[in-house]
């Protein structure tokens, strides 16, 4: 049976769109069962509706506790037979209770190279800190915030004149590529978790990261001739 994804969002849903596009292209072999937002006017809900994906707005402010809100989310996810939960720009911390319902089946994307710049507005944090490289991370969700075994990361440069928006847009382009890839690895059962580390098996069961020495190196500012 096709793996069912449940996608939680809070905003514009460009990551959701990249997942939809990967499914349509046939590179990600999964279905989206349901999209849930905690923000009523999140544009991601419109993206989902355009694709005839069931959508729900579940307002966290209407629940007495985090757990009550999460119980509602879990009820919906279960109704739609969701196997894997995807946090695609979902701006709420989830609790141990939620995590215990989907052990090693919840993925998050964070707009920084973890463990740098955890928490809110990682892109702004990176610009203000003055780092020369930043990027995005897809990881399993565990009980700590922006923490859990890392599956894939992508890096980009940070320019001196970058605004928070410039960097956020550059990082989003990476997110849209690495998130569907990570989801696909999980769907295909190719991720092995060992403590806080993950290994991605290639199609012949070898460690994907070890089979290529072609990885490029990003250096910013660029080296001058002779170095
Ligand atoms: C993305 O940049 C994502 O990494 C970030 O929110 C944005 C959502 O964009 N998530 C977090 O900061 C979670 N801590 P999108 O709604 O267009 O996919």
Outline the structure in words.
With 227 residues, the chain is of the alpha/beta class. It folds into 2 domains: 1-103, Formyl transferase, N-terminal domain (Rossmann fold, 3-Layer(aba) Sandwich), CATH 3.40.50.170; 109-227, Formyl transferase, N-terminal domain (Rossmann fold, 3-Layer(aba) Sandwich). It has 6 helices and 9 strands. A 7-stranded mixed sheet has the order 3-2-1-4-5-6-7, with helices on both faces. Strands 8-9 form a two-stranded antiparallel ribbon. Strand 2, helix 2 (43-50) and strand 3 (55-57) form a beta-alpha-beta unit. Helix 1 crosses helix 6. The longest helix is centred in the last third of the chain and has 24 residues, at 164-187. The chain is globular. 34% of the residues are buried. Bound molecules: glycinamide ribonucleotide.
Question: Outline of this structure?
Answer:
With 227 residues, this protein is an alpha/beta fold. It has six helices and nine strands, in the order βαβαβαβαβαββαββ. β1, α1 and β2 form a beta-alpha-beta unit.
- Secondary-structure element sequence? EHEHEHEHEHEEHEE
CATH-level-2 architecture of the largest domain: 3-Layer(aba) Sandwich
Which runs of at least 5 residues are low in confidence (pLDDT < 50)?
A: none
As a percent range, the share of strand residues is 15-25%
Strand order across the largest sheet: 3-2-1-4-5-6-7
CATH fold-level name of the largest domain: Rossmann fold
The percent range for helix content is 25-40%
Largest sheet, in brief, is: 7 strands, mixed
Supply the CATH superfamily name of the largest domain: Formyl transferase, N-terminal domain
Broad shape: globular
Q: Got a strand count?
A: 9
> What structural class results from the helix and strand content?
alpha/beta
Task: Count structural domains.
Answer: 2
């Amino acid at each position: 049976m096709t793996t069912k994804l449940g996608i939680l969002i809070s905003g514009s849903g460009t990551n959701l769109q990249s997942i939809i596009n990967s499914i349509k292209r046939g590179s990600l072999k999964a279905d989206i069962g349901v999209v849930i937002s905690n923000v009523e006017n999140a544009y991601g809900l419109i993206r989902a509706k355009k694709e005839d994906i069931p959508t729900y707005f579940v307002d966290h402010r209407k629940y007495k506790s985090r757990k009550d809100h999460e119980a509602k989310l879990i009820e919906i996810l279960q109704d739609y037979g969701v196997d894997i939960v995807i946090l695609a720009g979902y701006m709420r911390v989830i609790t141990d209770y939620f995590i215990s319902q989907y052990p090693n089946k919840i993925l998050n994307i964070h707009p920084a190279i973890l463990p740098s710049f955890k928490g809110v507005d990682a892109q702004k944090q990176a610009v203000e800190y003055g780092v020369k490289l930043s990027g995005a991370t897809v990881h399993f969700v565990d009980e700590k915030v922006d923490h859990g075994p890392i599956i894939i990361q992508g890096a980009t440069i940070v320019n001196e004149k970058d605004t928070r928006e410039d960097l956020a847009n550059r990082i989003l382009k990476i997110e849209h590529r690495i998130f569907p890839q990570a989801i696909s690895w999980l769907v295909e059962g190719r991720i092995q978790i060992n403590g806080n580390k993950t290994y991605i098996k290639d199609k012949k069961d070898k460690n994907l990261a070890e089979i290529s020495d072609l990885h490029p190196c990003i250096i910013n500012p660029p080296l001058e001739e002779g170095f």
